[in-house]
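Q: Hi! New to this. If I give you a protein sequence and the SMILES for magnesium ion, can you show me the bound structure?
A: Yes, paste them in.
Q: Okay, here:
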Amino acid sequence: MKVSFEGISKKYKGKWALKDFSSNLEYGIYGLLGENGAGKTTLINIFVGILKSDQGRVLINGRDVEKIGIDFLSHIGYLPQYPQFYKEFTVLEFLKYMSVLKGIPKEQGEKRAKELLSMVNLSEAKDMKVGALSGGMRQRVGIAQAMLNDPDILILDEPTAGLDPQERIRFRNLITKFSQNRIVLLATHIVSDIEHVANQVILLKNGELLKQGAPQKLTDEIKGKVWSITVTDDSLEEMLHLKISSMMRDDQGIHLRVIADEKPADHAVHVKPNLEDVFLYYSSEGEKW
Amino acid sequence: MVRLFFFEFRKHFMKKSLVIAIICFSLLNIAKIYSEYHEKSLLSSSANPEWQELYWNEIYEQFKGVMTDKKIETLMSIYKPLEQQTADKTASTETNNPNTYTGNLYNDHLFFKWNFVDPMEYAYMYKQYANDVVKTANENVSFFESLGNDYEYKKNKIILNRFQGRSIDSFSYTEMFQYYIHYDFSAFLVILICLYALMSVFVTEKETEMNVLLLTTKAGGQKTIFAKLFSASVFVIAISFWFGLIDFIAFASFFGSLEALFSPIYAIENFANTALDINLGEYALLSLVVKTIGFLIVSYLFLFISLFFKNALLPFIINMFFMFGFIYFQEAYMGSEQIIFKVINPFSLVVHRDLFGGTEFVNLFGFPILSYTAAILLGVIWGGIFLLAIFIFQRKNTIYRIGVKKRVDKVV
Ligand SMILES: Nc1ncnc2c1ncn2[C@@H]1O[C@H](COP(=O)(O)OP(=O)(O)O)[C@@H](O)[C@H]1O
Ligand SMILES: [Mg+2]
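A: Thanks. Here is the predicted structure of the protein with magnesium ion bound:
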């Protein structure tokens, strides 16, 4: 399975939400990383066919999605941003309903729903009302729902929003589990969501593709551009014009993690870049202090 | 499709809040009918305590059924003296007179007048009345035929046919149907319940952002709209019949009688001029069906309005406004000569006494159409327009969907 985005653009009231976006996806987890408003949801909505792009097209194995028509829907599983589902439905009922919507035969749908509930560890909660679930549980119902039709492509829009750290980790593991033999497109603005699970990272900023590649490759590319500087309170002021990715204070002073092409200070030393640094590096302006 | 319908029904109508509302309104309705009985029935214990027993245990038995000369003679032999004795208001007003039925002469007089003499007189005279109508219609037919006025000719022909051979041969207790037919409170309750329940049908999807997810599933588009409209219709019909059933059973049990079930509809005085020639039992059923059609049409309007909103409150208020508009409009034209303004109002099917009580016509391309036929016809057209509008606008509302030609650029 191969998904190609070809020159996708979308404009809202004269402002580009997405500009000439092109990318190819094959197997594995793709982390679509970008800050709020970068255009992630816009891209996903165009992909799942609920928003029309101004330009460009989406191809599946070389075929235009428009031409595939409604059958395309059986290839995708989709978890929207901020889903609430129906408060009055029980978990199992909701999954059954989603299988009906997806045109899955009755027995098969029910069997699949139960399997998935056990995979996302919600078998116990199957008779709970959706309205009574915690955020993490609801997201797990959401991913189970997306997996019902055994899709080739799983699309998750900010699935970890509002989860606590533990739920976040559990959810990450779940995604890895589900990524076998399929394409997972996971949009997020949180680097740690994808840092250790994504095979590929797609960096999006202001509707434009900054960079796509394996996390290792992306961090390698900025090798030698991430520095650590230890300063005192007095000398902190003169460092604040730099792109600082983190700041930590201990009894030896303040440790700054700085991103810069050139050595930013005499006593700066190299450190190993991480994905967060990559994100910051390609964002034109750094954190302003 | 069946399962889709079931889930749609479950989603919107099998909610605790709604079930509670239906139960409360049902009880309210029963209470209202109970008070209706106490307020209006001549035989209720609060109005005339001793009448009920007297009526059912002694007198009604003697006079019910086919009105024979003998029965009328007997009744007159009781009533005439009472009338004379009370005419000059000099009779005794004591309330425990052992030589009377109720303990008091005036009371006796009214008892027989209201319960037997007046209604039997109406029933007896109706044959003559219908005959007169037929005679006039007959004259009109010849007259308008000679004038070449085809419309009036046809109209009178219809009147002629409808009134020919009418008579009320039997006397029966009609109070129950009299008030049952004139009872509108339950219609108001049904509309409120429908309004409350239906507001969520389209709005929920937006509130929960499920509209986005629905459109990425095969059956989440057109089929879901169908399932929504179908389940909404089933709900409205079920609620209408539920309250219809409560009305009927409650009236029958509080008034304690179904006596007039097989009497002709014109045995009720307000329906002396009706174009219908069916019995009261049939009318009860017809009335329920017509009312239900009215509820459906109004419901489709409610649903249509709700399409344009993201939460339920505003369309609820707007629809309420519409509802009172219809009611006002209907009251304004009640009994009016402007038949067209009656029949064009979808609410005329909900409270439809005015349509069925008389024989009125609407001119449709030179053909005289009975007002109730016209109202049902127009109602069906209204319903069709609203349904079509729902489909068109829901599609416009829905975001572009793969495999569907229509493309719209907006995420709603
Ligand atoms: N319906 C809309 N109307 C106008 N502007 C929109 C609309 N949807 C998104 N945008 C704009 O498009 C840009 C991208 O939004 P979005 O794709 O939601 O970003 P993300 O999901 O990455 O946070 C933002 O600037 C947003 O304000
Ligand atoms: Mg988003």
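A: The first strand of chain A starts at residue 3 and ends at 12. Let me know if you'd like me to explain how to read the tokens.
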